[in-house]
Design goal:
This protein has 293 residues and is α+β, with helices and mostly antiparallel strands. The chain has helices at residues 32-37, 72-77, 97-110, 161-166, 223-238, 258-273, 279-291; strands at 4-6, 10-14, 18-23, 39-43, 47-54, 59-66, 89-93, 134-137, 141-145, 149-154, 169-172, 176-182, 190-195, 213-215. The termini are far apart.
C-alpha cells in the first residue's frame, strides 16, 4: 500500500507488512497517552480485525483491533482504556468515510488466517512498549523502572503503616511474573507487581496495605504515565528468565541520589513544622536518611 491516512489525532502509514501509527503532536485535544507513546507499529499478522463505524460529531472511526498478547500496552490495560485513549482508533471527518472504507478493505485483505496455535504470544512482543527508564508518582509513593529493577519509594503523606514497616521496595524483573494495572479512572486504581514465587490461589492484600503495589488517586498515577510504565515492565518480564537460586550476597546499603535525600529531608521538615511528626520521629528518620548517603 504505502499510503498515508491522516486523522484528527493520528496519521496511519500503510507499509507492505504493517501499519505505522504516528500520533499528532501540538494538536489541541490530543490525548496525553498518545503523546507519551509517540508512535505504534503493528504488523498485519498481529491484527485480529479491522472495523469502520460512525463516530461522534460528524466523524467515522477506523479501528484496527490487535490480537491478544501482541502489545504489552493493551495487555496491561486489560480492556480498561476509554475509547478516546485507544491508540488503534483513527478518528476521521465523515467526508473521508469512502477513503477510510477503502483502507479498511485493504487491511482486511492483508490479515492472515487465524492459526491453530498463536505463536505471537511467545517471545518478544510484536508491538514494542515505550521502554525504560520510566517513573511516576502514585498517591502513596514514587515508582521507578530502569529496565532491570522496579522500585517503590514510600511517601510519608500517603503510605500506610504496613508499607512503612516493610520499607522501600526493589524488585528485579527476573522475580516478576507480570503486572496488575487498575485504571486511575476507577475507584480502585493501583499498580501491583505479581511475583513469580507467589503461592497459587493466595489472595493478595488490599493495594493500600500491599508493599508490592502503589495506589493511584486524584492526580496520581495518571493513565499516560502509569500505563506505559506497566507495559514497559510486562515487556521486560516477557524477555527475562527467572532469577537463579543463589546464596544471598552480603548486604551493602544502597547509596541514593543526594538530591533525592535532600528532598525527603525537606519534606520531613515540613511534616515536623506542621506538628505531624514528633521530635523523636524527626531525629530518627533524618538520621536514617543521612545514613543512606
Amino acid at each position: 500500500m504505502g499510503d498515508v491516512l491522516a486523522g484528527i489525532h493520528a496519521t496511519w502509514e500503510f507499509e507492505p507488512d504493517a501499519v505505522l501509527i504516528r500520533f499528532t503532536r501540538g494538536s489541541r485535544g490530543t490525548p496525553k497517552l498518545f503523546l507519551a507513546l509517540g508512535e505504534r507499529r503493528i504488523p498485519h499478522e498481529a491484527l485480529q480485525s479491522v472495523t469502520l463505524s460512525p463516530g461522534k460529531r460528524g466523524t467515522v472511526v477506523l479501528h484496527a483491533v490487535p490480537r491478544p498478547g501482541v502489545d504489552p500496552l493493551m495487555e496491561a490495560a486489560a480492556g480498561q482504556l476509554k475509547d478516546g485513549n485507544d491508540p488503534y482508533r483513527l478518528v476521521l471527518p465523515a467526508d473521508r468515510e469512502t477513503l477510510a472504507e477503502y483502507y479498511a478493505d485493504e487491511l482486511r485483505a492483508a490479515l492472515p488466517a487465524e492459526p491453530a496455535a498463536d505463536p505471537l504470544c511467545a517471545g518478544p512482543y510484536p508491538v514494542s512498549s515505550v521502554g525504560a527508564p520510566r517513573q511516576f508518582k502514585a498517591y502513596d509513593g514514587k515508582a521507578t523502572f530502569d529496565g532491570d529493577k522496579v522500585a517503590f519509594r514510600w511517601f510519608w503523606t500517603g503510605a500506610s503503616s504496613a508499607k512503612w514497616k516493610a520499607g522501600d521496595q526493589t524488585f528485579a524483573v527476573s522475580e516478576l511474573a507480570g503486572v496488575e494495572w487498575r485504571s486511575p479512572d476507577g475507584l480502585d486504581g493501583h499498580l501491583r507487581l505479581l511475583r513469580r514465587d507467589a503461592p497459587d490461589g493466595a489472595r493478595p492484600p488490599r493495594p493500600d496495605q500491599d508493599p508490592d503495589a502503589v495506589v493511584f488517586g486524584l492526580g496520581y498515577g495518571p493513565v499516560h504515565e502509569s500505563l506505559p510504565f506497566a507495559a514497559a515492565i510486562l515487556e521486560a518480564v516477557r524477555g527475562a528468565s527467572p532469577a537463579p537460586v543463589a546464596p544471598a550476597p552480603a548486604a551493602h546499603p544502597a547509596r541514593r541520589d543526594p538530591a533525592d535525600i535532600a528532598e525527603r529531608i525537606r519534606h520531613l521538615g515540613e511534616l515536623y513544622q506542621a506538628g505531624l511528626v514528633t521530635d523523636d520521629e524527626f531525629t530518627l528518620k533524618k538520621a536514617e536518611l543521612l545514613a543512606e548517603l
